TrEMBL record:
Its main location: membrane. One of its GO terms (cellular component) is endoplasmic reticulum. InterPro entries: TLC-dom, TLCD. PROSITE patterns: TLC (PS50922). This is TLC domain-containing protein 4-B. It comes from the Eukaryota. It comes from Salmo salar.
């Protein structure tokens, strides 16, 4: 194993241990100080709260690193299949550590946070990221998938508001819901044509055929699987956002009518 591969392994293990530490130690200590409502939660809700706190931290760190690579890593952008994967490997190594950590927590606390879709999502991502870390192939596409992390903080915030008892028609909830729907659409749905057009642009090239068949299968299968789930989640988010907006509109009308009656 070369020196850089050893470094990536260290990053992966450090990431795994760090996210476990954040879940078991940091979030339980910080959360009640940041939000007193945390203390009123049931044990299973506290587990999910800590899980989502860690998820948000991971999304912000990896998401901004991903954006930096997309904007400034010329080697990856010019050769999306075999460009220098150094920075991408570091980012994917952090994400891999997080995904393994989160899978472990999902299985251990299945009654609190178990979700078959998240298990499929994590396994599909790990299946694809293995080839990135092992052989350095497809760095552009692996990094591009991480743009999706930008939607995670809003999704988690929606749950935080809900469990803390914020009315769905409250301004913070409505603002977050609209932001969640918009960001989710932009980073997971609207980017699909760009992603698949770039995939099509390298199809059949010499660089494409240098990727082993199992690597191509991992790339295509994981991409399609993740996007099917993204479309399903987008549908749920859009329906939820629509219901909240209708509820807020009805509440506003009722308040105005009651004011006129008084």
């Amino acid at each position: 194993m070369d020196l850089f591969s050893q470094l990536i392994l260290v990053i992966l293990v450090t990431s795994f241990l760090s996210f476990q530490w954040l879940f078991h130690r940091v979030s339980p200590w910080v959360s009640p100080r940041a939000s007193p409502g945390f203390l009123r939660l049931a044990d299973q809700q506290k587990v999910e709260w800590n899980s989502r706190t860690v998820s948000t931290l991971h999304a912000l760190v990896v998401g901004f690193f991903c954006l930096y690579i997309l904007l400034f890593d010329d080697a990856v952008n010019e050769d999306p299949v075999w460009g220098d994967p150094t920075l991408v490997k570091i980012n994917v190594g952090m994400t891999t550590g997080y995904l393994i950590s989160d899978l472990l927590l999902i299985f251990y606390y299945w009654k609190a946070i178990g979700d078959k879709f998240f298990v499929v999502h994590h396994l599909a991502a790990l299946y694809a990221y293995y080839y990135v870390l092992r052989q350095g192939m497809l760095p552009y596409f692996a990094n591009f998938r991480l743009l999706a992390e930008f939607s995670t903080p809003c999704v988690n915030q929606r749950w935080f508001f809900e469990v803390l008892g914020y009315p769905k028609s409250s301004k913070p909830n409505i603002a977050n819901g609209m932001a969640m729907a918009l960001v989710f659409f932009l980073v997971r749905i609207a980017v699909m044509p760009l992603y698949y057009s770039r995939m099509w642009s390298v199809y059949g090239t010499e660089a494409f055929y240098r990727v082993p068949p199992e690597g191509r299968a991992a790339w295509i299968i994981s991409s399609v699987s993740l996007d099917v789930m993204n479309v399903m989640w987008m549908h749920k988010i859009a329906r939820g956002c629509y219901k909240v907006m209708c509820s807020a509109r009805r509440h506003k009308v009722e308040t105005r009518d009651n004011g006129k009656t008084d």
